[in-house]
Design goal:
The structure is a homodimer of 147-residue chains. Helix content of chain A is 39%, strand content 20%. The first copy, chain A, has 147 residues and is α/β, with parallel strands linked by helices. The interface between A and B is large, with 56 and 55 residues.
Chain lengths: 147, 147
């Protein structure tokens, strides 16, 4: 079993996609994350859903949970709905890190190692200069427990 | 909006649950992770799906992707199906870390900050000495983009 057998088409966004639109895509299609493409149509980053959410959280609340507690319910609601106006560019991690990207020949072991190491529930599959799609944790787990 | 409004019952496992059974639960119910309970029925850990997968990956492949590449397809397949015989105990992270656990009064901002900080797509909700369930990233995202 190789990446080419488990890969499925996967929606992508660009740096200029509004975060609100990205969040709607995650919600409506129940995606574990998003593939962010560069101007050449190749994966620039893989964005887990938790990191899209991060944009709605002020820095001081991310660092100190006690500070999130002092914000009242009304304002907390408003923060979470404040994703409008921002773009995916702002949701990217500040530091470069290993990206879960592989090629169609990758074995299930390579896919699992990549997901485990990068804590990513999806791996983008690139064939030469073309994005084929993604293998999700769900697809890999389904295969692993199938008889 | 508070945790009590977004929480749903969530399956749990114990340290002695076979990993294979945990993987089947993740697969069949399309869960983003698992809640591991202690002997008192309280959350001991929250285990993202990627970390359950980690158990099937030999250490040398986790550290060096090039080494995963040299394992042929047949053996790679076998590794992934080798989850049988291990228990959830072995899947827990070696180092203690902040757990995504909160109480029913938590606001959506606290939930989002917890998910973003711990990179966890689920937060366990505990009321006193009782596990109520979990708020998933999906539920929070659905709420954030609802009109």
């Amino acid at each position: 079993m190789r990446a080419r057998d488990l890969v499925t088409p996967f929606p992508s966004v660009t740096l200029d996609t509004p975060v609100y639109e990205a969040a709607r895509l995650l919600s409506a299609q129940r995606l574990p994350g998003l593939i962010v493409l560069d101007a050449h149509g190749l994966p620039l980053s893989i964005l887990p859903g938790t990191q899209v959410l991060r944009l709605a959280v002020p820095d001081y609340c991310q660092e100190d949970p006690a500070l999130a507690r002092v914000v009242d319910e009304e304002h907390a609601d408003r923060f979470l709905r404040s994703l409008a106006g921002r773009t995916v560019r702002e949701a990217l991690p500040r530091q470069a890190r290993e990206l879960p990207i592989t090629d169609p020949d990758a074995t299930v072991l390579e896919l699992a190692a990549l997901m485990a190491r990068t804590h990513s529930p999806l791996v983008a599959v690139v064939d030469g200069a073309r994005l084929v799609g993604a293998v999700t944790l769900q697809a890999l787990m389904d295969w692993a427990v199938s008889t």
